[in-house]
C-alpha cells in the first residue's frame, strides 16, 4: 500500500508498506519533497501509514535506511523505531 500527502494536487510526500508476514510490514519509499521537510509533513504521513498498517492487522513495522539519512533517522526514532 502506498500513501501520499498532496498540496494543490501535487504529491509532496509519500511512503508505502509491504507485507512481510502476517504480523509484520516493511515501510518503504518514505520521501518528502525537500521544500516540505522539517514541517511535520513526513511525520504526519508516517503516522497515517502506521495507522493504516494497524487497521490491516499488522502488529510490527520495520524499515531500513542508510547511514547518511540523519534527518530521517531522527524522525523514525521519534516514532520509536530503533
From TrEMBL:
Keywords on record: Transferase
Q: Tell me which residues make up the N-acetyltransferase domain.
A: 1-82
Q: Does the keyword Ion transport belong to this entry?
A: no
Extract the InterPro entries matched here. Acyl_CoA_acyltransferase (IPR016181), GNAT_dom (IPR000182), NAT_camello-type (IPR050769)
Q: Spell out the Gene3D superfamilies in the cross-references.
A: 3.40.630.30
Check the record and name the PANTHER family matching this protein.
GNAT FAMILY N-ACETYLTRANSFERASE, LD18367P
- The protein's name in its UniProt record: N-acetyltransferase domain-containing protein
Amino acid at each position: 500500500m502506498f500513501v501520499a500527502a498532496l498540496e494543490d494536487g501535487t504529491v509532496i510526500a509519500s511512503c508505502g508498506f509491504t507485507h512481510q508476514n502476517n504480523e509484520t510490514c516493511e515501510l518503504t519509499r518514505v520521501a518528502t519533497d525537500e521544500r516540505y521537510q522539517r514541517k511535520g509533513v513526513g511525520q504526519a504521513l508516517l503516522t497515517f501509514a502506521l495507522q493504516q498498517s494497524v487497521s490491516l492487522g499488522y502488529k510490527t513495522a520495520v524499515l531500513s535506511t542508510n547511514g547518511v539519512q540523519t534527518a530521517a533517522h531522527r524522525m523514525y526514532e521519534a516514532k520509536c523505531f530503533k
